[in-house]
Amino acid sequence: MLTERPTIDSGSTEILTVSQLNQAVGRLLERSFPLTWISGEISNFTRAASGHWYFTLKDASAQVRAVMFRGRAQYVDFAPREGDKIEVRALVSLYAARGDFQINVEAMRRAGVGNLYEAFIKLKAKLADEGLFDSARKRELPVFPRQIGIVTSPQAAALRDVITTLRRRAPHLSIILYPTAVQGEGSAEKIAAAISTASLRAECDVLIVCRGGGSLEDLWSFNDERVARAIAASEIPVISGVGHETDITIADFVADLRAPTPTAAAEMAATPMQDWLAELHQQAVELIDGLRHLLNDHSQSLDWLAHRLISPSMAIDHQKLRLSNLANRLRHGATTPLAAARFRIAQVRSRLHHALPDTRMRRAKLGAKAVQLHTAFSSRLTTWQHGLESASGQLELLAPQRTLERGYAILSDESGHVLRQPDEIKPPQRLKLTLAQSLGRTIIAGVVLLILLVLIASSVAGAGPQMGHAWGAFVMRWLHVVSGIMWIGLLWYFNFVQIPSMPKIPDEQKPAIGKVIAPTALFWFRYAALATVATGVLVAWMNGYLVDALALRQPFHAIGIGMWIALLMAFNVWFIIWPNQKKALGMVTVEPEEKAAAARLAMLTSRFNTMLSIPMLYMMVAQQNGGL
């Protein structure tokens, strides 16, 4: 639309040049027509060496020259060709040099690309929000695929390029074609069906979706949502090889890997066999070299160890030589100090011999003096012995004991004062009578004699078996019980006091202690046993059932059992406990093992007697009940 119109003054005399005219017209056009979108078809398209594009934009009834300078042409995302329908954003101008009317193109796009581009952007944003473009969901291609599937048209030139590339790079791979239309009505649905079929059949390891280059409309099937979702749902890794490098489709974003061209997709799907063989060869060479170096190292180590290894005979010879050297050193070290010491002893002995005085004369004089001294001492000793014997005889004649033995006695009071006059006795007064024997022995002897007299008198008066309730039998029974209780007490003392304390006594003290303890224990053990047996027999005899008791007849079998038990215990004391106790106390010289065994046997026998003492005591009580 014209914003201003030039006015021509018909009466003006100014003459314009052609350049001025063209420049004025150009400025007028630029001011009158701002940037606007113009649609048409490309013809006479030329790319100059400077990078500028020159072409004609035409429709069915008109055409206009157009130019797109290099600075703007580099932003076009496709390669214009003859016959392409395009839309340009241009400025109307005039090329002043030739006076040609033309348009200066600022931007270029395919015809109708505005609506398609908006649909492309919307679908891309939608699928991106759903995560179909995320790198996390994209899968790695297999390193060694066995079969490769191709989704494309059987008549497409891209199929031939892919097959040629695969045969050249990896002839061992199998190829499966999933034919489908790649453009036109319904092609998007067929492409999605072919991808789903390949995923369902799972015959191949990699799936290539490809076609050759074309306009945005030609490639629009790969911008379809159904194709994108089919690629995303595929169980097989998908490579997208649609169009040329500048062509971008939705399938490229969804696929696991995008290739700029179908040929590049084939190269990405399979590594060349030669590359694998070359890598294997290189690895084999490296392995052989590594093994060679390892063998060389081990061989060197083996040589070093073999050099260090010495045969057993050489080692023995070396040890013998070392032993001989040590023996020589030891012999030299032992003999040299000994010889030196002997030499020093000889020197000291020589010096001592020269320093000692001559003692032979003094020894002779000393011997003579010793003989004289011995003779004089013997004579004096004989004289003293004769005098001592004479004094002893006189003392023996005048000793008070001899006077007492002749029938005399010494009468003294409680303080020990000897009474010489009758008037010194003042009744009532305790007096002490000293006879030829000691007082303690007289009392003991008197008591024993009194008991024996009572027993004899009772036995004679009762006529033996007929004195069942006689006083002598009563005393004898209780003497039997007392002797039995004393024996049992000795057994318990010996078993639980003396024997347990023996391990605590040092071995070097046992013989000395045994000489003190053992005789006393022997005396009381022996005579307590004899007293118990003897009094039991006397009681049984005095009560008239001795034979029945020894024969274990009723009703006096308990008394007989008690006597037999007492005899067994007496036998154990005399012939088992006492001999083994002497061995254990060291009174008899035996081996340590025999001493320990003797101690154990004495202890076990004593404990056995202790257990027998319980029924024996019971039998004594039964005897008392049966006797009275």
Query: Secondary-structure element order, as H and E?
Result: HEEEHEEHEHEHEHEHEHHHHHEEHHHHHH
Q: Strands of the biggest beta sheet: in what spatial order?
A: 1-2-3-5-4
Kindly state the number of beta strands: 12
Mean of residue pLDDT values: 76
Query: What Rg is obtained from the alpha carbons, in whole angstroms?
Result: 74 Å
Termini separation comes to: 170 Å
Major β-sheet profile: 5 strands, mixed, barrel
Question: What is the strand content?
Answer: 5-15%
State the secondary-structure class: alpha/beta
Low-confidence stretches: 1-6, 437-469
Query: Fraction of residues in helices?
Result: 55-70%
Sum up the overall morphology in one term: elongated
How many DSSP helices? 18
Describe what is shown at a glance.
By secondary structure, the chain is α/β, with parallel strands linked by helices. The protein has 18 helices and twelve strands.
Helix and strand layout, with pairings?
Blueprint (H helix, E strand, L loop, with lengths): L17 H15 L3 E12 L5 E6 L4 E6 L1 H4 L11 E11 L4 E11 L2 H17 L17 E6 L4 H13 L4 E6 L7 H15 L4 E6 L13 H9 L4 E5 L7 H5 L2 E2 L3 H8 L3 H36 L3 H44 L4 H39 L1 H6 L4 E4 L17 E4 L4 H24 L8 H31 L8 H33 L3 H5 L6 H28 L7 H36 L1
Parallel strand pairs: 3-5, 6-7, 6-8, 8-9, 9-10
Antiparallel strand pairs: 1-2, 1-4, 2-3, 4-5, 11-12
Helix pairs in contact: 4-8, 5-6, 13-14, 14-15, 14-18, 15-17, 17-18
